[in-house]
Amino acid sequence: MIRVPAPAKLNLFLHITGRRADGYHLLQSIFQLIDLCDWLQFHPRDDQKITLSGLDHVNSQDNLVYKAAVKIQPFAQNFCGVDIAIEKNIPMGAGLGGGSSDAATTLIVLNQLWQCRLNLQQLAALGLELGADVPFFIHGQNAWAEGLGEQLKYIDLVQKKYIVLKPDCFISTQMLFSQKTLTRNSKPTTFCAYQLTPSTFGNNFEPVARSLYPEVDEAMRYLDQFGVAKLTGTGACVFTEVNAEMNIDEIIANSPCTAYLVNSLTESPMLSFKLIGN
């Protein structure tokens, strides 16, 4: 049995800078890995079946983990069936990248288990077919992201703690993108500019998310009492950086919704993953 983590991420900011001819939006963002993780267990089988458990309310074949397994299977030099069990700690529909991270971890593990012999670039190319931020989790380093989120420049970030709130709502990304008030023409910026004034870098989805989902607005107003509240991804999670003046226990205890205290990571724990005997 193989048990491995799949870490979440925060978008420290998220700007939409334009739109491609095919309708896809261009963005700029910083992807920050955090130590809130799902855990995946892989049990080899004696037959040829791929099974998935741990998400009873989701059709297995619609899950990114299952799709990732099917995607890499044609490259297998030593294929065997596998039971994949997901221990879900990253909330779904939260903007934390849990599904993409699970898919990335699956590609990394099965690449070794099935002796596919794909390098990171090849795995990232497969991952991009599953989702724009899967390559980020495969490479496992904090990054300045552009394009659809797949153009990555790896950056060093100061290690920090964050309080993350998960409002009791599930945000429709499609609905946010459909809003006429969504800002889609933010001026392209640079990592150097972000380093100078990080608190001024926001998320273009925040105003529409707060307008459409009162739970998000409530969570942001709560965190704004203690720091600068930000939306991650398209939500629903919001977060703020921990500072020395905060009473963390009190903030979490009085939160209007589920709250997490998380640490930033300098790299994904999956970077050091290696099967015994490989």
TrEMBL record:
Which reaction(s) does its UniProt entry say it catalyses?
Answer: 4-CDP-2-C-methyl-D-erythritol + ATP = 4-CDP-2-C-methyl-D-erythritol 2-phosphate + ADP + H(+)
> Which major enzyme category is it?
transferase
Corresponding gene?
ispE
Q: Give the protein family.
A: Belongs to the GHMP kinase family. IspE subfamily.
- Example of a GO biological process term: terpenoid biosynthetic process
Output this protein's name.
Answer: 4-diphosphocytidyl-2-C-methyl-D-erythritol kinase
- InterPro entries on file: GHMP_kinase_C_dom, GHMP_kinase_C_sf, GHMP_kinase_N_dom, IspE, Ribosomal_Su5_D2-typ_SF, Ribsml_uS5_D2-typ_fold_subgr
Q: What taxonomic lineage is listed for the species of origin?
A: Bacteria, Pseudomonadati, Pseudomonadota, Gammaproteobacteria, Moraxellales
Q: Which residues bind ATP?
A: P91, M92, G93, A94, G95, L96, G97, G98, G99, S100, S101
Catalytic site positions: K9, D133
UniProt-listed Pfam families: GHMP_kinases_C, GHMP_kinases_N
Its EC number is 2.7.1.148
One example of the protein's molecular function in GO is: ATP binding
Q: Which organism is it from?
A: Acinetobacter rudis CIP 110305
